[in-house]
Amino acid sequence: MPAAPTVLLTGASGVLGTALLPELSDRRVIALVHHTPVPGADEQLTGDLTAPRLGLDATAYADLCARVDAVVHCAAVTGFTDGPAATHALNEAGTLRIVQLAADADALLYHVSSAFVARTGITGFGPGQDTGERTARPGNYLDSKRAGEDVVRTSGVPAVIIRPSVITGDSRTGEISAFQGLHGMLASLLRGRLPLVPLSPGSLIDFVPQDVVAATVAALVRDGAHEGEVWVTAGDQALRADRLLELAAEFAAQAGLDLTLPRMVSPDLVDRLIRPVFMADLPPATRRRLDDLLAMTALFTAHQPFPTDLGKPGLPAAVGADRAESALHAALSQLVRAKDMNRPAPALVTA
């Protein structure tokens, strides 16, 4: 009986990596780890994505290249506060090291990027980057992911670029290895810490549960896909901002949380009126939190949906509105449990 194909997985301890390991149970998975041990992998290899030969000696590197059939590259700096140097060191330079390994191993590469690279107006090099007191700067992250994609595209290595939107927890339980930026915004909303929401009602909040993204990546690996770009998004079924707030209010009422929904205002109004007139008198911590909120919500100001490849032959079903609402409920329930906000969350009430 032939041995199972071998997959090298980076970022195995992250949100997507932890969800992907069970999906690759029919493969032999080598997890490249930096510090954190990864339960569930067939083998763990300590290395450094930013170092030559991934930090391995020549013999270990040659042995790895001889065994690997495919590389799934999930590792990335995903936070918006790490700064451009640290972000590019892993998301661009680290991708260059992985591309080199894929070439040396004659292996297929599955590179996880972000659907938000399509928001070309959000960049760390644009005007106004130093205004406000925010610590969250998504433009630096998106610049680094665009640079990582360029590394893959120009390498000549057979590769698939995978573009998920915001990854939330498991679609059924809401469980996730680490809360993400959207979770932080939802937690602030449930706690009544958002004085306003700088979005128009029709802004699309595109998110996809981690199990859907993991199943997509695993399907591509099993199929041996070797080129193209795959969008893993809700597409035109993404929740509108006003609908998300409505669902959050319904959830809060059922959970016994005292929630007064914040007012929705256009980002333009914030810059023209609220910032110059009102923000100067706010406490520094409140100004910083509001500035970080403005930076985060800039990702969702578009009304134009992302493309999506979900529902195409061989890939998981599309994320319809019902599933998106159910996944949001699961995420909110997990927040309430993990943050001990109140009593256990209620059962889902469907429209």
How is this structure best described in words?
- The chain is an alpha/beta fold.
- It has a single domain (6-339), classed as NAD(P)-binding Rossmann-like Domain (Rossmann fold, 3-Layer(aba) Sandwich).
- It has 10 helices and 13 strands.
- The chain has helices spanning 15-23, 58-67, 84-105, 138-153, 181-190, 210-223, 241-255, 267-278, 284-297, 321-339; strands at 6-10, 28-33, 43-46, 70-73, 108-112, 159-164, 166-168, 196-197, 204-205, 207-209, 229-232, 239-240, 263-264.
- It has a 7-stranded parallel beta sheet with strand order 3-2-1-4-5-6-11, sandwiched between helices. A two-stranded parallel ribbon has the order 7-10. Strands 8-13 form a two-stranded parallel ribbon.
- α1 (15-23) crosses α6 (210-223).
- It is globular, with a radius of gyration of 21 Å.
- The model is unreliable at 126-131 and 344-351 (pLDDT under 50).
